[in-house]
Amino acid sequence: PAQKPFVMLVSLLVGPSSNKEFLVEISGTTVTITCPLTESNVDWKSSGTKLDNKDRKYIIDNHDSSPINLSCSSDRKTYGLYLNARVCANCEELDALAVTGIITADLLITLGVLILVYYFSKDRKGRASASAGSRPRGQKMQRPPPVPNPDYEPIRKGQREVYAGLESRGF
Q1: What is the three-class DSSP state of 111?
Q2: Angstrom distance (rounded) from CA 23 to CA 109
Q3: Digits of tens for pLDDT over the chain (171 positions)?
Q4: Can you tell me where the transmembrane regions are (predicted)?
């Protein structure tokens, strides 16, 4: 049942129609196929070539993932199978519970990181960036007004001589 995602099966019934199905088991690179016939003497064929196996189970060791047409038959019934199974030596099988657990743990960790980022960035929104001239302040001390820059002193009436060189020029 857990191998169904790895196996694509199309059963081709050559004999009379039946609800019986092949049983395919995959472990590493070994594929075991069980014929739906109940007789003990079963003839197996692979792509038209007769195989020397007479059991209900046919075992393919070191399967290379290439598609195969298989059939098993007894005296009066024949069942066909197109096997397209992807196998690998280093694969690990995961059941549905393990996959669900991995996804749930990933979502919880992501949510935890988002909450931590929000919590630690929330306090820094209103603060100005720390510069070399800043110093720690006491509680709610009033700041004195900034010292005016003499280079940008406003023009006052009666003190035009400071800006006498800035007369408008005629075009």
Answers
A1: helix
A2: 40
A3: 444 433 333 333 333 344 578 899 888 888 899 888 887 788 888 877 888 888 888 888 888 888 888 888 888 888 888 988 888 888 777 889 999 999 999 999 999 999 999 998 887 655 555 555 555 555 667 888 777 777 776 666 666 565 566 666 665
A4: 96-120
- φ and ψ at 50, to 5 degrees? -75, 135
Q: How far is CA 91 from the centre of its chain?
A: 17
CA atoms within 13 A on the CB side of 53: 19
**SS3 assignment, position 165:** helix
Strand ranges, E, within the chain: 7-13, 23-27, 30-34, 43-46, 49-50, 57-60, 68-73, 78-85
Burial of 85 (0-12, 13-18, 19+ CB in 10 A): buried
DSSP letters spanning 126-149 = SSPPP-TT-----TTPPPPPPPPP
